[in-house]
Amino acid sequence: MKVAGHTFSVAFCVILLTGILAWLFLHGHEAQEPPQPLSPPLGLQGDVFQPILPLTPITGLDPGRVALGEQLFHDARLSGDGTISCASCHNLKAGGVDGQRFSTGIGGALGGINAPTVFNSAYQLAQFWDGRAETLEEQAIGPIHNPVEMGATLAQVVERLGADADLVARFKRLYADGLTATNLLDAIASFERSLITVDSRFDRYLAGDPKALSELEIDGYRRFREFGCASCHQGMLLGGNMFQKFGVLGDYFAGRATTPSDLGRYNVTGREEDRHVFKVPSLRNVALTAPYFHDGSAETLEQAVTVMARYQLGRDLSLADIQAIVAFLHTLSGAAPPLEP
Description:
Elements: H1 2-31, H2 63-73, H3 86-89, H4 136-145, H5 154-161, H6 165-174, H7 181-193, H8 201-206, H9 215-226, E1 243-245, H10 266-269, E2 277-279, H11 301-313, H12 319-329
Antiparallel strand pairs: 1-2
Helix pairs in contact: 2-7, 4-7, 9-12, 11-12
């Protein structure tokens, strides 16, 4: 009798539990609203880690310091021989670059890495291709001290600028301690933080204007997403927010004569896993910033897309794929803020 009673109890519990689970399933299924389909590709604006969003200006900047930084950005007195300014390699009227594979510094010295654009750099996780500078202030020191770029020291620059009475007075109005190396870098960084290129056609599309892009450009955005380009080129800048190996699915450097610049982040960390790892460049204004890659080896966007697909995605794209993606990339050019004449 004990066995029979136990069997009955177990059977009763199983039946009761089954009924409860069935009720929960049916109740939840009835209460659940049918999923709302996305309207591709406009509905596919976000990524898992960082959504692709329109660019917005950085607020809270001191306009006086921004204007002072703009003046210093174009001042060749920051270089050792007085011939090179920040704008020499970062032409603000030409996408924030100089259009050269490698930039020319003082005395005709040739650099060893392609100069990235200064536009939108304030939103990047770090500065330089290898990410060795965490802030814009720290980045500003690099070219000044580099012997093949501006070839000076901050002490020399401050002493030289200190002979300019008007500039010294301007620093005193904006900074309690006047002209110092720290305040010099702060002014330049303040100006660079203002260099956000807003209102691209792609941003208008993201904001809900489906007519901002052509059918070909929308198709290029779709392929950009589906092929996996957005795995690295994501976030507000479509890049600039992570590091990645150049040659994930193919050895880009095989058979090439390499230089120290090709080592990428390895030069910063010394870790073998960082060999050939670089900051993923932002694609904002990319149509204006040829040539491409850290080595400036791709002269056109078509070449750059082909190489990226092959070595980063393991794909050989069709001509139609390339044309559509390049058309999309042209929509990422935004309007620079007004600059002093």
